[in-house]
Structure formats: C-alpha cells, structure tokens
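Handoff note, outgoing to incoming analyst
You'll be picking up this chain. Sequence as last confirmed:
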Amino acid sequence: MSEIRIDGIKTATSRRVSRRMIARALKHKRFILGIVLILVPFVWAIAAPVLAPGDPFDQDLSIAVLPPVWLEGGSWEYPLGTDFVGRDIYGRLIYGARVSLTVGLGGVLLAIVIGVTLGLIAGYYGGWSETIIMAVVDMLLSLPYLLLVVVVAGIWGSSLRNVILIFGVLDFPLFTRMTRGEVLSLRESGFVEAAHMVGASGWFILRHHIVPNLVGVIITVATFEIANMILLEAGLGFLGLSVPPTIPSWGNMLAEGRNYLASAWWLASFAGLAILCTTLGINLLGDWLRDTLDPRSR
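Most recent structure output, in case you need it:
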C-alpha cells in the first residue's frame, strides 16, 4: 500500500510540475514566437506530399519565372511564382524543409551519440582514455570548422546521407568537451560519492545519477546546433556541395536564384526567408530552454 501511495504522490507531483512549466512557457514571449516560427517548416516537412500543390520536379518552360500571385502576371496556381525552368517555388519550398530539418536533426543526433558517449568515458573514467579522446577533440576544434566541412563535403560528394555524416562527425567535439566538463563537476558531488560508498557500479552511476543531470544542458546546446546545421547545409547547397541540384532544398534554391535577384527576386528570396525564420525560431526556443533548464544562466 505504501508503494502505491508513494507512486501516486510522485505522479501527482510530476503533473503539477508539468502544468507549472507549461503555464510558464505560455507566458514566455520568446517561447511562443519560437514555436510559431518552427511549426510551419515542421508541418511542411511532415505533410509535404499533402500540402504541396504539385510535383516540385515538374518543369514547364512556358510558365518559367512567373511572379508571385500578388504581382502582375501572377497566378493562384503558383502562389509564390515559378523558377527559371517553370517549377513551382511554393512546392519546392515545402519539400526543402524536409532536407533542412533532416540534416539539422540527424546531424545533431549523431553528434550527441558520439560526443556524449566519449565525454562520459573521458570525464568519469579518466586515465589514458581521457588523454586520447581529448587529444582528438582538441585537434578537431583547432581546425577551421567551416573550411573542414567544405573540404570533406567536396571529397565525399553530394548526398543527404553524406551531409548528415559530415555534420555529425565534425560536430561531436563540442558535445564531448561539454559533457566531460559537466561530468568532472558531477563526479565530485555528494550523491555520486554516496553511490560509490554503497558499492554502485560505474555504469549504474552514469545511467542513474550523471546522465539525468546532463539532459538539460545537452538539449539546450543541441537546439542551437540544429539551427547552426540548417545554416551550414544552406551554405553547402549554395556551393553545390549539399544534396544534388535536382533535389529541392533551400540552399539549392538560393544558388539557383542568385543570378536572378535583379529581375526575379522571388527565386531566392523565399528560400532565404524560410532559412531566416526557421533558424530564428529554433534559436528563440533554445534561449527559453537555456533559461528554463539551466538555472545558472538566469
């Protein structure tokens, strides 16, 4: 009976805490604006086949460079106009959200898996493993990140899988160094020392005492890194080093429209606006998460 009562108290307490956090979030202007800005591209990415008015790959030179619907010569069939080969910009913008968000989420997830694992080993166990891991991390962090990304992308070739692998592999040092620093601090805390005294194994301490205390910091840093990777993917697409040019992506749309800015500004402007709004929304959400999950930043 006591266990049931205790479980009921824990559940009720967690519910009250959740309601309190939700109420606080709804009063936070940055949170509301961030959610609104990132909701649109996420809905686009999930429901692209339903929301796109037509096939984003279809070409029709007879309707090439149509202006948006509110300009003279525009059509409701192509609300944001068409590009230089007659492809619907609105449809390509919707499908481009899939590439950007897949790269951002996939790259960060891979970086977290590699970086946090190595950071836990280096910070908790120390010794020769820490020396080797941190030597590799310091070497990678000493190199110019953007230049390294461009060089590796040029060698590996353009594909969605390669872009995710590049960002995940080259971004893990950030999470490794952050995790190691947090683990070094937590390792000296009272609850970890108490777990040692009662004979808890290192794996048990990592899983039940250290990792739960890292979740807030990891989520906050990961949020900012998602926005960073979306910007980097757009930069690679602009250079022709991201996904193949035939695949709709915001970076490819920027590259294709840069020569038409004076005569057909909409070819590149809507992709640039999508990148701006998405990364701004993610950064605003990251600001709120930092204030909420890390009391030291308040």
